[in-house]
Predict the 3D structure of the following.
Amino acid sequence: MTTSGLSKDGGLGTIWRNDPSEEMVTILLTNAAWTSPRPPHIALDLLTAAYAAIED
């Protein structure tokens, strides 16, 4: 996962990532508030799967 670009994690169940180097936008919308300042496993799993799906 690269660190270039913009991102926003919302404590009310949202995550948004923009990675210009991969030309990718990733958005997760849930109806579950987060229970800690760190993103929940589902958010990390989504980002991992999104980057794994990239074909160079």
